[in-house]
Amino acid sequence: MLPGGRNWWRGSIGYEIYIRSFFDSDGDGMGDLCGISAKLDVLDTLGVDVVWITPFYPSPGKDQGYDVSDYVDVDPAFGTLADFDHLVARATELGMRVFVDIVPNHSSDEHPWFQAAIADVDSPYRQYYIFRDAAPDGGPPNNWVSHFGGPAWTLDPAGTGKYYCHLFLPEQPDLNWANPAVLEEFREILTFWCKRGVDGFRIDVAHGLTKDPQFRDNPQVRPVTPGMHPKDVFASYQHVHDLHRPETTKIFEEWRRIVQPYDAVLLGEMDVRNIERFTEYVDGKGLDAGFVLKLSASNWEAATILSDLMTYVRAAHGGAAWALSNHDQPRAISRFGVGEIGVRRAMAVTALMIALDGITFVYQGEELGLPDAVLTGVAMDPVSTRNDGAAGRDVARGPLPWDSSKLNGFTTAPHTWLDTAPLPAALTVAEQIDDPASTWARYRSMMELRRRLPALWSEPLEIFDRQATSLVLFRGPLTIIANLDDKPFEFIPEGEYLVEFESQPGAAGGDGGPLRIDAESTVIIRRRAD
Ligand code: GLC
To answer: Does residue 177 belong to any structural domain of this protein?
Structure first.
């Protein structure tokens, strides 16, 4: 059913698995690869085509696995390479594809490359990282800041007086992509996973990698004040010299050549503010697609959401990976409202995203209508633990509630890796999976749309009517009416039609007159003649 060749992923439905919190198969309180294999059939029933699994490589876990100390193995906490092979085999049996998360901007400081770099200043591995002389006053070489607070520079543990660069934690030293040897290492890493049968890579911090060769200061746009959240400190600078360098797209052109023989997809995480930059990454020579991160962070502002969607439709040329939530931001359902209203709004936008060109991702738990987790124990996210308890990302990372037994059936351990308040039966998979009126069942009917109505991705997209908070699209015989307004919207379809989908039961009304779409709902109709 999915298109073949390099573009097989277009029109498919992805699902982000945050491995720590998906399902624990071995009773250590943390999700693992066998836990994913055991539950893949549930995702298959839901209608998922592609799973993206967050990092499971050996890691000291300072940034929950995004600090990799070996790129070609599995951390014992998550299983073994054989478990990974089993997962791929199970996915293949079910006709599902697997994307792994690759972290090329930085490694862990415990990676043997970094260990060699600080053990011997003459080691070739020294050139794998970015060591720079101190400023004349002995401070960091420039004004770059880390995403997680403090300067992006830490003194060389080798005692040279130099600093090394880290756009994230000091335990996540940035790799030096100006050194061709780093690309050669990643050639092997990418090939290793392609040979193990992965279908694509989610590329972490794809807008990072290369840095200004002169390491100039970033322009500062507003003052940084004491106690500012690290996110706000970061946004106080224009990241023209540490991120978004033009050389990075050239690196991805090389990656494309590496993965070409395996037809693997390159899907970037690019935190771009400038939409032209997004287009440069997904121009067909480098990455296939990139996440539209703005949507995963926005609150409920219907006009802004719609305008962002339309901007990316134009800029991405089909290379948009739509997602309302991910493991780095509060969940959409909490950002959009509380309870049913949040679910309603999330479904209206997701149904529209499914009708746009690209690939649509759902973040684990979205299909259950999960709000942010309530933390009951210590914070785990370094954003909180290293910044005096600043709001962090743990709220999006709570264990998935499978049933209403102890710890929601996620684990048999006495504790989970992240302590969160138990969730009510109504929010569990067990309760929702057989209930046709559940959020899970409604997501399932939404996810099957692209299979049931292939015109949703195969016919050209035509914007028929665009208002500030509503949109009417044509796709061959289909009309998609997205009404994100808080009032109903009327539309007069041509000729007779069938209602194919409503994001809310009964959202399409009108009794023979104009079609009336309820507030905050998306409806898909099909011309009857077709
Ligand atoms: C990405 C990941 C995030 C991680 C960061 C550093 O943004 O999604 O979880 O902390 O990169 O690797």
So the answer is: no
pLDDT (tens digit per residue) in 235-292 = 999 999 999 999 999 999 999 999 999 999 999 999 987 888 899 999 878 999 999 9
State the average pLDDT for the chain: 96
Looking at the structure, tell me whether residues 412 and 476 fall in a common domain.
no
- Fill in the amino acid letter for 314: R
Place of tokens 């401070």: 139
How does residue 2 score in pLDDT terms, banded at 50, 70 and 90? very low
Q: What residues line ligand 1, using a CB cutoff of 6 Å?
A: 63, 66, 103, 168, 204-205, 269, 327-328
pLDDT above 70 as % of the chain: 99
Res 530 pLDDT > 60: no
- What would the pLDDT profile of 294-316 be if each residue is shown by its tens digit? 999 999 999 999 999 999 999 99
CA-proximal residue: ligand 1, atom 4 (nearest): 66
pLDDT at 1 over 50: no
Which two tokens mark 74? 């599995």
**170 occurs within a structural domain:** no
Whether 418 and 471 map to the same domain: the answer is: no
**Residue with the two structure tokens 């020294």:** 126
> In terms of DSSP bridges, do strands 508-509 and 359-363 run parallel, antiparallel, or are they unpaired?
unpaired
User: Which domain, by its residues, includes 477?
Assistant: 459-527
Last residue of a domain, one of 393, 416, 449: 449
500 and 412 in one domain? no
Give yes or no: 204 in active site. Answer: yes
204, 242, 500, 520: the catalytic one is 204
pTM of the complete model: 0.97
Residue nearest to atom 3 of ligand 1 (CA): 328
| Cα of 136 from ligand 1 centre, angstroms | 32
Please check whether residues 363 and 463 belong to one and the same domain. Answer: no
Would residue 174 count as lying in a domain?
no
Indicate the residue among 427, 449, 471 that finishes a domain: 449
Instruction: Clarify whether residues 48 and 22 are in a common domain.
Output: yes
- Note whether 39 and 70 are same-domain residues: yes
Total structural domains within the chain: 2
What local confidence, expressed as pLDDT, does residue 247 receive?
A: 94
Please identify, by atom number, the ligand 1 atom nearest to the C-alpha of residue 393.
9
- CATH number of the domain encompassing residue 307: 3.20.20.80
513 exposed, middle or buried (CB, 10 Å; 0-12, 13-18, 19+)?
exposed
Give the residue whose CA is nearest to atom 12 of ligand 1: 66
Calculate mean pLDDT across residues 118-125. Answer: 98
CB 526 within 8 Å of CB 477 = yes
Q: Closest ligand 1 atom to the C-alpha of 148?
A: 10
| Contacts made by residues 382-389, CB under 8 angstroms, sequence distance 24+ | 382/62, 382/63, 382/148, 382/169, 383/148, 383/149, 383/230, 383/231, 386/148, 386/149, 386/169, 387/148, 387/149, 387/229, 387/230
State mean pLDDT over 54-75. Answer: 98
CA of 267 to the centre of ligand 1 (A): 14
- Name the residue of 174, 328, 385 to mutate for ligand 1: max ligand atoms within 8 A of Cβ: 328
Query: Is 269 annotated in the active site?
Result: yes
Q: What is the pLDDT of residue 320?
A: 96
Same domain, 435 and 474: no
Instruction: Name the residue with tokens 């509503």.
Output: 470
Cα torsion 495, 498, 500, 504: sign: positive
